[in-house]
Amino acid sequence: MLFHLFHALRERVPGANIFRYVSTRVGLATLTSLLMTFMVAPWFIRRARERQLGEVIRADGPAGHAAKSGTPTMGGALIILALVSATVLWCDLRSTLVWLALLVTVGYGAIGFLDDYLKLSRKNKKGLPAKLKLAGQLVIGAVAMIWLYTGDGLPPEIRLRLALPLVNFHHLSLALPVGAYVAFAVFVLMAESNAVNLTDGLDGLAIGPVIICAFTLLLLSYAAGTTLRDFNIANYLGMPHVPGAGELAVFCGAMGGAGIGFLWFNTHPAQVFMGDVGALALGGAIGFVALATKTELSLPLIGGVFVVEALSDIIQVGYYKRTGKRIFLMAPIHHHFEKLGWPESRIVVRFWIVSFACAILGLITTLKVR
Q1: 249-265, pLDDT tens digit by residue?
Q2: b/e string for 326-348 if b means 16 or more Cβ within 10 A?
Q3: For 48, which of 27, 72, 243, 317 could close a Cys bridge (C-beta 3.0–4.6 Å)?
Q4: Which residue from 209, 237, 210 is spatially nearest to 221, judged by alpha carbons?
Q5: What predicted TM-score, i.e. pTM, was given to this entire model?
């Protein structure tokens, strides 16, 4: 909205032209979402306590988690509010990519909100049945991906091609039929969304890697969509050029800013938890940006912590069903380290460090600098 206002006033108001630059709007979106989270979070936490919207702790969870019972949850709604507001204010709303990113984020957030609401109303951890949750993610993901790959979101020449890590996209890429690509893309959305949800088990554990992924994808979006005075950054770096992807950099800036603001209140000991409403939405947002910028094959490395968390849970469940024994003391894997006696803050900070290293490796495999 403000982007369009300043664009209309650019010839009458001195300095208004600066707001057409993606780099300017990335910074403004980041600060807007950060400040909005700071301002709204204290009111949200106070109201949640008054309404007794407290987290229900797993009966079989680590003993140290009992003290967290009653901590306000559904704080992810704050992140979505700040993210959407900053995006609408500073993005070019003529962009199909922006509207699809918002569709996935808000749609997945709505599923998480319903799940959280049912948990709170029933006072137990049984929220929305898993089949219904996955079905909702599948429908929203399918609508968004069909729109992305058959509409005007991506250029036809790159729409159905996969960019291979460590390989120049213009020299070699993998082509897929539209049906296979849509199915694969929906899987990426659902896998990333649920992986972030599984990671959200300790104070600040999930939001730290989300912030790192958001700013990593910000760089990739800017590179994929920006041309500087006829210099095509994407072509130079061996990436597919996605016209308009710079607007997703603004979206990622808003995501990172909202995440930093939320971390202020979510760091140990947490004053508020993210809940499924935030975890599912942010995972879906990260997955969509990766798909829209053709970096989906680099996403497992960029979001390596989420992958390890999800795999640890899958391996634990599968192995237990086959043998009746456990590989980890408890899954997902962050609980395994808790059982080993690691302090919560040590686990969280070390996972952040691993996430940062994964993001650097993801950039190295994506940006083919010559």
Answers
A1: 999 999 999 999 999 99
A2: eebebbbbbbbbbeeeeebeebb
A3: 72
A4: 237
A5: 0.94
CA dist 105 and 301 (Å) reads 22
Q: How many CB atoms lie within 10 A of CB 198?
A: 21
- CB burial string 224-242: b at 16+ within 10 A, e below: bbbeeeeeebbeebbbbbb
Tell me whether the omega of the peptide bond preceding residue 269 falls within 30 degrees of 0, making it cis. Answer: yes
Which amino acid appears at position 89 of this protein? L
Residues counted in the chain = 370
Q: How many CA atoms lie within 13 A of 82 on its CB side?
A: 33
| Residue 324 one-letter amino acid | G
How many Cβ atoms from other residues are within 10 Å of residue 63's Cβ? 8
Q: List the one residue out of 237, 217, 215 whose CA is nearest residue 227.
A: 237
115 C-beta neighbours (distance < 10 Å), count: 24
CB-CB contact of 288 with 87 (8 Å): no
What's the CA gap between 328 and 332, in Å, rounded? 8
Secondary structure class of 174 (helix, strand, coil): strand
